[in-house]
Design a protein that fits this description.
Elements (H helix, E strand, L loop, with lengths): L13 H22 L6 H8 L3 H4 L6 H27 L4 H13 L2 H12 L7 H25 L5 H22 L3 H9 L10 H19 L2
Helix pairs in contact: 1-2, 1-4, 4-5, 4-6, 4-7, 5-8, 5-10, 6-8, 7-8, 8-10
């Protein structure tokens, strides 16, 4: 996410307010990548762009609203990238589709981190309208990629495509949390070989799940 110009002290003009809005999102994005979504506070975000928390709250009502908007943006970016990649691949090979889908999540750590937080916390401290906007954005993203998968693998039904994408998204969020434990747990796993299995490699797990699901759809279809 590019860093907006925030050299002005107080945003007064509409374009300055938009720049401040983008600066807040960029700061939250950077902080979450460094420390994880759960660790980032409003103060952390405000300090990164040199404003007081009270000034930040003129743009976003809550910390959760900031991250919910970041999640919506991440879904849009993910959908645009995956649909382009699937179109360029022009394949009817399930293994290739599985590889593309797995890589699309594994290469977006912030999206993977945000996915489980949406239901757990981000949707719970914002307005109903903010949740509605987010839900439609995420649904549109899943639908767009599902349609691209259906074009790549025309033997799948639209419902099977949506089931595949929704399952991989949910799994990606959970696996990312397991693969990126807090430092003290990471040190424990490194010190004790018997616990090494507690950390997983996200992309191979996602790819294998996609392959199994695609094979299962063929095997169980009437």
């Amino acid at each position: 996410m590019p860093k907006p110009d925030t050299t002005f002290q107080r945003a007064r003009r509409p374009e300055q307010k938009q720049q401040r809005h983008e600066a807040i999102l960029a700061a939250a994005h950077a902080a979450a990548l460094e420390a994880g979504v759960r660790s980032v506070s409003l103060n952390d975000i405000a300090e990164r762009i040199g404003i007081h928390k009270s000034a930040l709250l003129r743009y976003f009502e809550t910390r959760e609203q900031i991250f919910l908007e970041l999640t919506a943006r991440s879904w849009r970016e993910w959908a645009a990238s995956v649909t382009e990649t699937l179109h360029a691949a022009g394949t009817s090979n399930p293994a290739v589709v599985a590889e593309i889908l797995a890589a699309s999540f594994a290469s977006r750590p912030l999206l993977c981190d945000l996915i489980p937080h949406t239901a757990l916390s981000l949707e719970r401290n914002v307005s109903v309208e903010a949740v509605r906007r987010y839900k439609y954005t995420s649904l549109d993203a899943v639908q767009a990629v599902s349609a691209s998968v259906g074009r790549a693998l025309p033997g799948l039904t639209s419902g099977e495509c949506r089931e595949l994408i929704s399952t991989l998204a949910t799994l990606a969020g959970g696996l990312w949390q397991i693969a990126n434990p807090p430092l003290r747990l990471a040190e424990l796993y490194a010190e004790d070989p018997a616990l090494a299995h507690a950390r997983v490699d996200v992309e191979p797990r996602l790819r294998r799940t996609a392959e199994v699901m695609l094979a299962g759809f063929d095997a169980t279809r009437d």
